[in-house]
Amino acid sequence: NHYEIAQLLLENGSNPNAVDKGGLIALHNASSFGHVDVATLLINYHSDVNARDNWSYTP
Fold first, then answer.
1. With contact defined as beta carbons under 8 Å apart, do 38 and 15 qualify?
2. Which domains does the chain have, with CATH numbers?
3. pLDDT averages per 10-residue partition of the chain, 59 residues
4. From the record, what ranges are coiled-coil (predicted)?
């Protein structure tokens, strides 16, 4: 389950704002793929809702 894995990672100190090569943070992907529960979890862990990727898109 995506939620359980994300929760485990965040509880153990993973950075919710870590950026990949495309400038995406996990919140971009959770939002794009419709994982509302994971997106909410990321926001609760202070993921940047205004983060812009390399194409200037926000989550």
1. no
2. 2-44 (1.25.40.20)
3. 97 98 97 98 99 96
4. none
